[in-house]
Amino acid sequence: MASQTPRWAFWSPGALGHAFGRMLPWIVLSTPLAVICYFLIFYVPPFEDGKVAWYLFFYCAFQTLQTCFHVPYSALTMFISSEQAERDSATAYRMTVEVLGAVLGTAIQGQIVGMANAPCIPGPGDPVLNATNLSVVDGHNDSLLALPIHNTKTAYMIASGVICLIYILCAIVLFFGVREQKEFCRVGSEPISFFQGIKLVMGHGPYVKLVIGFLFTSLAFMLLEGNFALFCTYTLGFRNDFQNILLVIMFSATLTIPFWQWFLTRFGKKTAVYCGTLTAVPPMIVVVVFKSNLILTYFVSFFAGMGVASAYLMSWSMLPDVVDDFKLENPKSIGHEAIFYSFYVFFSKFSSGISLGISTLSLHFAGYITRGCSQPEAVNITLRVLVSFAPISLMIIGLVVLYFYPIDEKRRQRNRERLREQWEMEDSETDSAELAAMI
Fold first, then answer.
1. Under a CB-based contact definition with an 8 Å cutoff, are residues 383 and 230 in contact?
2. What pLDDT is attached to residue 362?
3. Could you give the percent of the chain with pLDDT greater than 70?
4. What is the pLDDT of residues 291-329, one digit of tens each?
5. TM spans, by residue (predicted)?
6. To 10 degrees, the CA torsion angle through 26, 28, 32, 33?
């Protein structure tokens, strides 16, 4: 007799969790607060003392709430299907839309804010273009900057408001468009505590190797992305074009994610990681070595976007394979998926913080001039290192670590077959138990 209880069912403690699953309630409850904090980051409070505390508080609150959104959002991949092919496809769609959202956000922020940017401040060695710049340099008429700065404040608030609306719209689509499915109960399984889960997860060799490799490659691309705007503005001299160059990179990444999805399906994920990451190396060398040229920069940016697409897709596409491998080694433990994804998100934010710290300190010691029309030669050299030599070195380290990542295509296929056999056996045991109970 066939079982009347589906093998996949909604499960989560609490009324809201019971109705919508384990992950979606976190997304719903964190979105409104995250949107408010994000908007207040760009709001200038009407007082001088305490501004640092204001921005520090709301920035930390936003990052916390963003984590409350990002961890369950990423972990949903494991909760909507048990098939590896379906999860890989879902990851490809997710990353395509994420990069497309980054393109949209870059375009909105860049176009709105770009129309109201305050003028740069010429240094002692810069040519004085007009009387306004001269008066600003001499400090005789600082009030001339008041109007541009006011316009910049307004532009940032408008841009943040538009992005907040997009944030809310996307959360609504996610909540009503995704149905979370989670295994209600596995025969012979038992829940594990949080600290037991951490011990088991961090002791899983493939996961540790993947996280370390991901940390280095992620740090490489964050250094590149975080300093590329300054590099285009000052080193290449494309002050009025860097927003369009960033759009080319993100647009290229959006277009090439389907290609990398096909590539990893055809040649395997480890091969795709190596090819995709190394795709970004030649553009980083060319843009630094050759003389500044706008057409060449656009061309190079397109190929750099291919590397960015690979970095977005591969890291998240390989994580479900590690979770499946863990399930086979620990068949009686459940509830560990969110731990895998939470540490993955943590290391992503950790690499972002390291990237920001390295960039800020390096530019500070090089003599970076805030809002300067030009920068000292030491800053230009530092920017070349931050967008070329440093990322390439980190990529090589990450690829060396991933070389020892043990889950190749053969092992992945074997894990899939073993999980399928395990599920069939559990269904058979469940049916037998229900039949015995009925008799």
1. yes
2. 92
3. 80
4. 778 888 888 888 888 888 888 788 888 888 888 888 888
5. 23-45, 52-73, 155-176, 207-224, 244-264, 271-290, 296-319, 339-361, 381-405
6. -10
Please write the tens of the pLDDT for every residue from 119-153.
Answer: 666 665 555 444 444 444 444 444 444 556 667 77
Q: How many CA atoms lie within 13 A of 358 on its CB side?
A: 20
Report the alpha-carbon distance of residue 21 to residue 12 in Å, rounded.
5
Residue showing tokens 């992945």: 412
Helices (DSSP H) in 115-130: which residue ranges? none
Looking at residue 133, what is its pLDDT? 44
> What torsion do the CA atoms of 317, 327, 411, 94 make, to the nearest 10 degrees?
-10
- Alpha-carbon separation of residue 263 from 58, 315, 320 (angstroms): 41, 14, 18
Beta bridge partners of 372: 121
**pLDDT score recorded for residue 53:** 92
Rounded CA-CA distance 37/42 in Å is 9
pLDDT computed for residue 119 by the predictor? 63
286, with CB counted inside 10 A (0-12, 13-18, 19+), is middle
Q: Are 266 and 283 in contact (CB under 8 A)?
A: no
Q: For the chain, report the end-to-end CA distance as a whole number of angstroms.
A: 12
Per-domain boundaries in the chain: 196-423
Alpha carbons within 13 angstroms on the beta-carbon side of residue 349 total 14
Which amino acid, one-letter code, is at 351?
Answer: S
Helices 242-267 and 205-230 meet at what angle, rounded to 10? 160
CATH of 196-423, one of 3.30.1300.10, 3.40.50.2300, 1.20.1250.20, 3.40.30.10: 1.20.1250.20
Query: What is the model's pTM?
Result: 0.77
Cα 10 from chain centre: 28
